[in-house]
Records
---
Amino acid sequence: MGSELAHTSAGLEAEPTSRNMASSTLAWARDRFGSDLVLAASFQDCVLLDLATTVFPAIEVVFLDTGAHFPETLEYVEMVRRHYDLNLTVLQPFEDASAWPCGSSRCCEFRKVGPLNAHLANRQAWITGLRRVETPQRAHAPVVGLDGSRGLVKVNPLAAWSDQDMASYVADHDLLVHPLTGAGYLSIGCAPTTRPVSEGQDHRAGRWAGSGKTECGLHI
Ligand code: SF4
């Protein structure tokens, strides 16, 4: 499997543009995994959903409803769901999550990582919106690779996309925009642990600001 993925990744990286790469990656994943494929969406924008539903309209999309999202995010989820007629599954926190309040050390584990892992347990592959420019830890993310901790293939169609690529795609396709984006929320997670960022600041600087935490555990 590892050599097949490396070969596939190299071929996809050779696509002439980042948009071509994303569309070809999604088409490959659809053909390779079919209904064993799940797209995990954060719903901070809908670029990946727009691309994915174009090549695979019935793809299962999952949203992790942590119980701590901004009301604007929940409204946006519903707007996007209706617009694309998404095959959407909303995952809820584990029952004992209340023992770990928002922002505490195991909060993400009980509200995000655990529910997603349980849902992916019988699948072959998952798609994420991860991009290399987001954090130093993501700088070498492959477009297609093995997710060793889950025993799955992880597909990152937007791995090579810049912030400008994202903005251009949104404008060119007149996509629905999250209501908080214009208020400086450039990376949007749960309300208790997300702040707006100033002009020129890193997009993810407002996530878990001041805590030293940079990832919720979904991507490591
Ligand atoms: S992102 Fe913050 S509030 Fe959301 S599950 Fe993780 S720690 Fe809790």
Note: The mean pLDDT is 92.
---
Amino acid sequence: MGFTLKPAVKENFINREDLLKEMVTTLTDESIDMGFALIGSRRVGKTSILLEVANRLKDNENIVVVYFSVWNLVESTLKEFSDQLIQTILTAFKNKLPTKYKIKGLLKDKIKEILREAGFSIKILDEIEIELSRKNKVLDANILLEKIFGLTEELSKEARVRTILILEEFPALVDVTNGKKLGEGVIRKIRTVNERLEHTILCVSGSIRKTMEMAVLSPSSAFYRQFIIKMIEPFDKTTTGELLVTNLRQKIEPQAVEVAHSLTSGIPFYLQLLGRQLQGVATEVIEPETVKAVFEDILEEEVTIIFEEEFYRLSDKERAALRVMVEYEVGKLNDISKNLGEGVNVVSKYLEYLITKGLIQKETRGIYQIADPVFEQWLKKRFR
Ligand SMILES: Nc1ncnc2c1ncn2[C@@H]1O[C@H](COP(=O)(O)OP(=O)(O)O)[C@@H](O)[C@H]1O
Ligand SMILES: [Mg+2]
């Protein structure tokens, strides 16, 4: 127990009990063949939820959970994606083998051998490997996807289990390259393959509202109505208090919880950062002023390291657009472009890029807003 900057599971996982119960119940119900799509901004707790669901399912003998995040790819090639996903699938199934085989850190070839010894037919795996080893040739994405999903299906059948296949940051698959970017075709292909799966339930997540919209939310998206959609929101004030009170060694005044909640907007990542720093303060009872001071430090230090990197990766124009949004407190396209001294058409293009990167959101009345309130505070400190 304690504050952590890694995904929170087990005793570190706070609240969201209703959602967890619903997910566990639904995913273990043989009569339901729908998975979940979690949508929520970065650092709000999607990975924690999915890993905690996996944790609660781990003793269920009828279930195998395969957890994979597209953001873990380094080169983002189809080859890397395929290799890593296959390794992850095989590793997940290793747990269904007799105990003597449950050795950690086995590589693919060894697991393959063990599966074969244990009587699993893994013809499909051999086929995938032939496909992957073709030299000097663009891989066939469609065949690969069919076969990789086919692999979980085959293994599930043989092990008599249902597989929960979690693909985090799912829309990022369109940026995976195979010569060129796979594009939206990959989402449609997975949708078609997924429809035929009987023993595999797909669950996905995405941080960027816009790309999730294109993949699962809007009526024209490939996965429209194929998932149970869950919007993941930051913590409410009570849960913020729960996180702090559970983990802090000191007492904390209710007013101080309020301040913590308003400064972090209840986003669990920032609460964890705050809690970790508060813990080091030499005081018996944490007061509102302490929280304010510690949060100021965090904006200067920890958060600066994270945001600076992100901010300077943007183009000059994107940075300028963000700057005027905070400097002049404007959100309307017209005002932003006036302050930038650039045409509306040009500026709306940069704003679109920023939306695609998840940094700003378009509100209904054509007003743009910075997505992460802590990022906004940080920008304000720089540009006001
Ligand atoms: N339910 C929770 N209880 C406690 N801490 C949480 C919870 N959910 C998220 N966090 C914390 O917030 C941070 C971001 O969580 P993460 O699950 O990685 O978010 P996301 O996947 O949405 O980016 C981590 O430091 C994690 O420990
Ligand atoms: Mg995550």
Note: Residues 4-8, 12-16, 40, 42-48, 243, 268-269, 272 surround adenosine-5'-diphosphate (ligand 1) (CB under 6 Å).
